């Protein structure tokens, strides 16, 4: 077992770390920003909308194009794809456009497949990630990724970044129908790892990651302020946090 510490706090008896992917391991602003732009253009084309609807659609999905950043309130990268689709449907409805969630879902899938050849041009690892993962591996700590992305996409991304061998399991959107906030994805990850809840922690950049830790009965949820949400807001969900994974220290007990 090890201790994890940062910014005046310390957690002892840790033997397992569950990581979120986007905003925690991978820079979500560049990656999701490009996806939102592709989805918005596809919607404009499909429904024969004017160019003036492009920016509002991007904003509805969570991209502030003038600022070049994802909005802290999301919804992209903070909730499931199905919830994002519901937001887009309501935005189109306000524009006087009738669109079914099934049709929008098909557009999303089509654009993702079309995006695959250029996807890795927009994937970059956040500071401190590799160093922390290597350290955890040397200390014998089990690790897993728990994400709302699919398992194949996640494994491909981890492989591209050269860190796939540093994880012992991956839980994705198809692994369970239950959202992160229920704690079920964390429970599933621990089952795959063959470990109990005691001694397990979750590291993520969003409230749903910290709620997963709480409702899954984990020892703690640790926030990292490298995603869309400021650390001040994340402290409402957990007292344990760092500005980047460079600040998260792992040591033998």
Structural class: alpha/beta
Element pattern in H and E: EEEHHEEHHHEHEHEHEHEE
Structural domain count: 2
Overall spatial form: elongated
Quickly name the level 1 CATH class of the largest domain: Alpha Beta
How many helices does DSSP assign? 9
CATH-defined superfamily of the largest domain = HAD superfamily/HAD-like
**CATH architecture classification of the largest domain:** 3-Layer(aba) Sandwich
List keywords for this structure.
253 residues, alpha/beta, Rossmann fold, 2 domains, single chain
Can you walk me through this structure?
The chain has 253 residues and is an alpha/beta fold. The chain has two domains: 2-27 and 124-252, HAD superfamily/HAD-like (Rossmann fold); 29-122, no CATH class. The protein has nine helices and eleven strands. The protein has helices at 28-46, 54-61, 81-94, 101-115, 129-138, 151-161, 184-193, 207-215, 231-234; strands at 2-6, 9-14, 16-19, 63-64, 69-70, 142-146, 169-171, 200-204, 220-224, 241-242, 249-252. It has a six-stranded parallel beta sheet, sandwiched between helices. Strands 2-1-11 form a three-stranded antiparallel beta sheet, with helices on one face. Helix 6 links the parallel strand 6 and strand 7 (169-171). The chain is elongated, with a radius of gyration of 18 Å. The model has no long low-confidence stretch (mean pLDDT 94).
């Amino acid at each position: 077992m090890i201790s994890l510490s940062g910014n005046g706090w310390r957690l002892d008896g840790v033997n397992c770390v569950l990581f979120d992917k986007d905003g925690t391991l991978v820079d979500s602003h560049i990656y999701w920003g490009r996806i939102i732009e592709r989805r918005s253009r596809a919607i404009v084309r499909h429904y024969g909308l004017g160019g003036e609807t492009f920016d509002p659609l991007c904003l509805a999905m969570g991209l502030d194009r003038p600022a070049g950043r994802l909005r802290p309130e999301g919804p992209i990268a903070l909730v499931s794809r199905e919830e994002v689709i519901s937001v887009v449907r309501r935005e189109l409805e306000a524009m006087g456009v009738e669109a079914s969630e099934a049709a929008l879902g098909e557009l999303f899938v089509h654009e993702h497949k079309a995006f695959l050849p250029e996807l890795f041009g927009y994937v970059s690892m956040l500071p401190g990630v590799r160093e922390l993962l290597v350290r955890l591996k040397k200390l014998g700590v089990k690790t897993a990724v728990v994400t709302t992305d699919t398992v194949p996409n996640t494994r491909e991304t981890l492989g591209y970044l050269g860190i796939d061998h540093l994880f012992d399991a991956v839980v994705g959107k198809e692994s369970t129908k239950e959202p992160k906030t229920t704690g079920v994805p964390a429970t599933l990850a621990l089952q795959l790892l063959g470990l109990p809840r005691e001694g397990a922690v979750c590291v993520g950049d969003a409230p749903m990651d910290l709620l997963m830790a709480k409702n899954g009965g984990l020892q703690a949820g640790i926030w990292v302020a490298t995603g869309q949400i400021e650390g001040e807001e994340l402290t409402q969900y957990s007292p344990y946090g760092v500005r980047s994974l460079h600040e998260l220290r792992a040591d033998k007990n």
